[in-house]
DNA sequence: AAGCGGGGTTCCCTTACGGAACCTCGGGTG
DNA sequence: CACCCGAGGTTCCGTAAGGGAACCCCGCTT
């Protein structure tokens, strides 16, 4: 399908994949740790990790002389985390309830608690759903 | 799970749901049109639409004296589109290949083609995966 | 009265998931 | 040397979710 959203979903749209990325981002990088943290079945975790490695989102790195491995974000995977931050922001706003957000994000540049705010790469003004027109691009073929 | 990403996935994490939202955002709002556009089974489309309406992401509005309905984004759903734009941006960068992006986004405020650029709500500087520390928040349970 | 078209339901079949057990490969321990 | 351990999977089976096609309902239109 000539749609970048659909293509992105082919990479990380399967059940559990975003949560696996979140774990790796948060420092939970080993098979058993991810499995215990998420409560996912080992079979599905194997499938998801293999797929994410094949897609170049994660890389599998040994951390011991024995055959022991950790999963790390590649550059491609690191950019996916922006999507996770937007998801987290939406969940904080609409689903967190009285308790407030479970995680806070402290921005290195300013040292303050903030959240992601989508802006136009061209002019820097806010870029929300109603702020754009969709036009066919070169790959619309 | 005390995780806003997981909570968000409970709302739009099922297969097809993001693509349904994309269709509605792009103006494909009716059952048969969405079904034809995505090639999804009617049964699953019914389930997904009902779930999205229950979650307050879509609303079901009559458009005729006969029992005919359109699905529209609520405010809650409209904010989810920011996530879709980030997904599209990632797909454009990493998966579009030679052909280039299938869709271009023209920003109303500046009239130019742009893409979403996540910035810190506090200081306005870029806010990417490596630019934040994660801290437990009030809802960390 | 017959037909149509939107918006679903129902049925059946196949695929995917969860759970638990099993396997493997190095490295310690007695 | 024999044994056990623990990380990282793989295999097997039963249940749950998805796809396809057919069917249904209801309010027009002719």
Automatic annotation (TrEMBL), chains A, B:
SUPFAM superfamilies noted in UniProt: Winged helix' DNA-binding domain
Keywords: DNA-binding, Transcription, Transcription regulation
Pfam family, one: HxlR
A GO term, aspect molecular function: DNA binding
Domain HTH hxlR-type: 3-99
Ribonucleoprotein keyword on record: no
InterPro entries: HTH_HxlR, WH-like_DNA-bd_sf, WH_DNA-bd_sf
Protein name as annotated: DNA-binding transcriptional regulator, HxlR family
Organism expressing this protein natively: Nonomuraea wenchangensis
Lineage of the species this protein comes from: Bacteria, Bacillati, Actinomycetota, Actinomycetes, Streptosporangiales
